[in-house]
Amino acid sequence: MKSALAIYDMDRTITRRATYTPFLIHAAVQLAPWRLVLIPFVILSMLAYVLKLIDRGRLKEINYTLLIGRGIAPERLEPVIESFAEKQIATNIMPGARASIDADRAAGRRLVMATASYRIYAAAIARRLGFNDVIATETGLDAEGRIIARIEGSNCYGDSKLAMIEAWLAREGLSREAVHIRFYSDHISDSVVHRWADEPVATNAHDRLIRLAKAEGWEVLDWSR
């Protein structure tokens, strides 16, 4: 009998709003409020991304450095992460997502979060929602053991997300043939994972993904209402 997995994207799939920039602002307020004056440079970096001068991974690294700094000790960042996760759980989780997570858990599915967000805070949110495992973008450490903006490995987005899920399956000793996978996401960038999954679900999706889902015969859900 196959093992059953339910894999969820996080931002705008489980949460109403994206979490990355709010996390950086939350951290800046808690750790160094003066860094908020650098927000115009954050906006400029976003413009550079829109103009395709930098990729999404580099955008993350730049904004993290601007609003959190070049390196911070884990023990300083931990309470910031926990307070941010508490806030997200209280204000930013869609009821329909909670209900789906609870239903998948009750059905015996192993709950996996696969998100482009940094693990340092995504894992804290996932833990509060009862997820078993997290696949996410990893931060690096400097020579002094401080958390830095540099992404370790790949940004967990698009084709890289699928590769990271497959690598996680291999580490867990699970072959693709031995698992049945239900996958939830809101964004067209995850369509490569939708196509790979056994039960692809477009949740709270934008128009491009809705059109693709209807063409492919995938389930479409709206948890935002």
Sum up the structure in keywords.
alpha/beta; 225 residues; Rossmann fold; 20% strand
Describe this structure in words.
The chain has 225 residues and is an alpha/beta fold. It has a single domain, classed as HAD superfamily/HAD-like (Rossmann fold, 3-Layer(aba) Sandwich), CATH 3.40.50.1000. Helices cover 47% and strands 20% of the residues. It has nine helices and seven strands. The protein has helices at residues 20-31, 39-50, 56-67, 74-91, 95-106, 119-129, 159-171, 191-196, 207-216, and strands spanning 3-8, 110-118, 133-141, 147-152, 179-185, 199-203, 219-221. A seven-stranded mixed β-sheet has the order 4-3-2-1-5-6-7. Helix 8 (191-196) links the parallel strand 5 and strand 6 (199-203). Helix 1 packs across helix 4 (74-91) and helix 2 (39-50) packs antiparallel against helix 3 (56-67). The longest helix has 18 residues, at 74-91. The radius of gyration is 18 Å and the shape is globular. The model has no long low-confidence stretch (mean pLDDT 96).
